[in-house]
Amino acid sequence: MSVKRRASKLAVITLLQIGSVFALPTTTDSVRFDCIFSATSGGHVLKYDLCPLLSRAKYRISRDVETPPSITRIHYDISLGDYIPWDGTLPARDQCEQGTNVCMTVISERPDHRLEPPRTIYVVPVAGNFPDRQLNVTSKLSRKIDSMGNLPLTVTFRGGLYMGVPQKAVFTFMCDSSVTEPSEPTLLSHADPLEDQGNHKLVWKSKHACPLGGYPSGQRDGPPEPTLPIPVHDPLPGSQDGGRMAGPGTVVIIVLLGMVIFGNLKRRWAGRHSTSRYRSFALSRVSPAVHHDADPRSPLTPHTPDAHHIRKYTTVDYLLSHLPNSTDQPNDPSLSFAHHLPPGSLPELQKGIDNLELFQADVTDEHAVKKLFSRGGEFFEQEVQVLIGKSLDKFHLKDVNLVDMDLAQWKRTLDVNLTGPFLLVREFLRRLRKPRRKFAPDLSKVAVVVIGSTSGEFGEAGHVERAIATVPLRKIATTSDIARQVLVLASSTFSGHVTGQNIIVAGGMEGRLLNPPGETSAKHEDGSATAAASTSPRAKPRMDLGFTNVHVLITGASGGIGSVITRLFLDHGARVTAQYNTKTGVLEQSDRLHLVKANVTDAESVKQLFITAGDKFKQEVQILIVCHGIWVKDEVDLVDMEPSQWTETVSVNLFGTLLVAREFLRALRSPRQDYEPDLSKVAMVVMGSTCGEFGEKGHIDYACGSSGLQHGLVCTLKHEIVKIAPQGRINAVSPGWVNTPMAGFF
C-alpha cells in the first residue's frame, strides 16, 4: 500500500475520533421529529398531534430502589421537542452528551452518611441525534383495546448507544380525555442498559394522545398493526429553522485534517528507516451468542444468534481500526487474537487485516495455553511481547444471591476468570524468560494488561462469584492484636453501624477496649501498646460486648489466631463452635466450647458442621468468624508456580469461605424449629491479609484469595445479609505479618 493511501486511512480514523469531540452541533442545530403524523388501524388512517405534549422543555421522571444500605435513584430526563439542555455546572461525565432527547441517570446515595456525596453509577443516552447515530422514531397502534375502550399508541425513539448496546425509549401513549393537562409521562419499567435489549418503557396518559377526529366505529381486538416510521427533520444547510451551519467545530476539523495528513506522510516516510517491531496478543474468550450465559457486558459478545460479529464503538474495534492492512512497514504491530468460538465464526474480524491471526484456545487448559503461545510465536516468528487478557465468558444474566448459588456456577466462573489469567500470564512470562532462539523479543516493549471489573473493588449484587473473581508495617503483630479487632467488629453493641469494611491491622492497636485471656498490656520502645503473654490469672474484660449466650462459629479455630479468638469469645460469655481440620491444638471441649472436625472445601461436610453446631447449643449460629486458610511458606514466583498450588490455595481460602458463608446464611434464612437465633446479633468477620491490598512477593496465590475475600466477598455480601437479617453485618480484618506457627515465627 502506498504511503499516501496509508496516511489517508489514518487521517480518516483520526478524523472520526476528533469529530466526536469537536463536531458538535452548533447553536443553530435542531433536529426534531414530526409530532403530527398518521397511524393505521384496521384499514383506517388515524392522525395524531402530540405537539402540545412537547411544548415543555424537559420532564424528569424518577424512581427510588432500596439497595441497603444505600438507595439507588433512577432519573429519566425527557425532552422530545428539543435536545436536553446542557448543564454547565455538572461534570461532563455526569450528564448525557449533547443531542440527547432521553437520558437515564443512575445515582447511589447513602442517606445515613451525610458526609458521603451521592455517586453517579452510569449515564445512558437512551435516544437522540448524534454525529455518528441519527434519531429514529417509529409508531405502532396496538390492536388490543385498553380498559377505556381505546387503542394505545406506541412511539419508539432510538439513537442511543451505551457500551455497544443500542438503547430505545418506548412510550405508550394512552388516550384519556379526563386527564388534567399538562400531563407528564410515568415510568413503567426502567431497563438495565446492558440487558433487557435496552428497552426503557414509559406510559403517557393525555387527551392529546387521542387521534384527531376520534377512533373509527366498531373497533375491536385484532392482529397487530405494522410499525410505521415517523419523519425526522434533517435540517438543510443554511436553513433558518433547524439549519446546521458551519460552526467552529467544522473549521477545526478541516485544519486538523490537513495537519494529520501532513504529519502522517512525514512520519511514514521516516518510518521506512526504522527497524522497531513488536507483537501484541489480545486474548478473550468469546461465547457463542446462543449461549444464555454469555456476558452482555463484554464488547465481544454478540447479542443475536446469527450475529457472530464485533460490535461498533468497542475497545477491540478501536484497536483493530488502527491496524494497517499490511505488514510492509516495520512499525506495524502484529496482533494475535485468541477466541473460544468454532473455527470460522469470526471471519469478518480478520478480513482485510494481514497482520492479525485468530487462534482458538481454552484458557483454562494448561496445555491449550502452551499451544496457543507456541503457535502464535511460530506464525509471526516472534514471541509475544504485549499480553492483553480478558478471559470472562461467564456472566450470568440472572442475579443469584450467595444463599441460593449453585456450586457449578462458582467453580466455572473462577476457573475462567481467575485460573485462566493465571495460566496465561505464567506462560507469557516463561516464554519471555526462555524465548526460542530465532523468536527473541524486544524486552523494552513488554507489558501485561488484565481487564477486571469494578465489582472486584465494590462488589456486585447477585454476583459474588464474579466479584471474587503492601504498606510497610511498623512491627510484627501478635495474635492478640488481631483477635481484639475481630471481637470489636463482631460486636453489635459496639460496631452495629459498621459493615462492608476492610480493617488493616498492622499491630500496635491504640486505645484497646479489652484484654485477651491470660495477657496484660505492655509498652513497646516506641510507646505503642500491645499484648504480651503473662502468667497472671485471666483478666476480666473491660467492656460488655453483648456476646452472652450468643452462638459463634469459628473456622480454623485451632490455629494461632483462631485459638486466641476462641478464648476471647468464651471469656465474653459466648457459646462457641470451633471448626478444625486435623488437630485441635490447645483447645479443649467444654460446656460452652464445641469442637467439630470438618473439611471446609466439601459442601456436605460444611452442611453437617452447621447441623451439629445447632444441635449442640439448640440455636443456629449467629456470628461467623472465618479464620481458616493455608499459606505456602516457600516463595514461588508466578512463572514457576504449579497449577496445583494455585488450585489448592484458592480452594481452601476462597471456595471454603464461600461454602461456609452460604451455609451460614441458609441456616439464618430457614432456621430449624426451636433453634431460632436473635437476628439483631448477626455478624460475619472474614480474615483477609494486607497482601490482598498490596500484593506479596512469591505468594500470588494467597494474595489473590485474600483480595477476593476482603473486597469482592465482603462488598457483595453486605447487601445480601441484610435481606435475611436487617441488622446483619459483614466486615474483614486484614493483618500483616502475625507471630503464628503458620508464618513460621515459632
TrEMBL record:
Coiled coil: none annotated. Residues 224-234 have a biased composition (Pro residues). Residues 213-244, 288-307, 514-540 are annotated as: Disordered. Keywords: Autophagy, Cytoplasmic vesicle, Disulfide bond, Golgi apparatus, Membrane, Mitochondrion, Oxidoreductase, Signal, Transmembrane, Transmembrane helix. Residues 33-212 form the MRH domain. It is found in: Cytoplasmic vesicle membrane; Golgi apparatus membrane; Mitochondrion membrane. Pfam families: adh_short (PF00106), ATG27 (PF09451). GO terms for molecular function: oxidoreductase activity. InterPro entries: Autophagy-rel_prot_27, Man6P_isomerase_rcpt-bd_dom_sf, MRH_dom, NAD(P)-bd_dom_sf, SDR_fam. One of its GO terms (cellular component) is mitochondrial membrane. Its main location: membrane. It is a single-pass type I membrane protein; Single-pass membrane protein. One of its GO terms (biological process) is autophagy. It comes from the Eukaryota. Belongs to the short-chain dehydrogenases/reductases (SDR) family. This is Autophagy-related protein 27. It comes from Rhizoctonia solani.
